[in-house]
Amino acid sequence: MRKGMLWIIVALLLLAPVRAAAATEASIYLETIGGFAHNYLYMTYAYIGVTADAYAKEIYPASYVKRMMGDTVRTLDILARKLQTVQETNLEEEDRKAIEYIVETFGLLKEEAEALAALVESGDQTALDRYDQARKKARDHLKRVQQMK
Amino acid sequence: MKTRFLILALLAASLILNPSFCQATADKDSVYLETIGGFLGSHMYTTFAYIGVTADAYAKNVYTAAQVKKMMEHKAATIKDVIGNLKKIESLNLPEGDRRFLTSSLEVFDLLLVEAEALATLVSSSNQESLEKYDQAREQSWYKMKRLLQIK
Q1: Is residue B96 within 8 Å of B77, Cβ to Cβ?
Q2: Interface predicted TM-score (ipTM) of this complex, two decimals
Q3: Can you give the pTM of this predicted structure?
Q4: Residue B88: its chain A contacts at CB < 8 A?
């Protein structure tokens, strides 16, 4: 019995630094993911904006912009799925909510990229309105993300 | 992405002492590392594209030099932020394959930083040296990124 207790104590002592190291590593990973996600939101918003401006000045043809926005939509989809798997790990409520909000913003950026692709294809007023609305919605959301930082 | 950004299981001793804890930790770490890997590739690709589109737009007078300078200074600050985060991860106990991927990613981000800074200088000074620096960094970052992300 005594010997059993001793082994438990030894096991706990051995595990303590391992748990601490694991917790530190996990927090470094989560901080990195948060930093990446945050930067990626702003960069994608800026990237869609400069691409739209460049298209308006006829720097790129519609087919090129469509392809660029197609790539952006696919990337946002993949990253949103990755973030959802992170959300399924054992996170604190605050982190979970932050990721939820980021994923939501990814969805809005996706709408914006899709709207730009539709706009360069059709060039009509409805598509332009849809793009403007999507951009405004994404911008408003980004402002809130900034406040959450 | 071929290299799976994974971390090895924890100490063998802890595996024997508490297998369920280590299993959970290893799974969680692999989720985190795979997510970081996904962001790394997307981040470098979109950064490269963003700098290029901005340069093209500047060449066609879509933006003023002051606007591009501000955009690139902001971009450079973001890249520095990414590099700082990656260096923190580099200090962790990573398997060799992941470390190599990380080192190569850092090289690409260093070149993207040179590219963004060179574009900011170029629009302010229009000198030949900045143009060459920009072109060289762009070419090198594309070459390295293509190999790293296996872009066809």
Answers
A1: no
A2: 0.81
A3: 0.82
A4: 28, 31-32
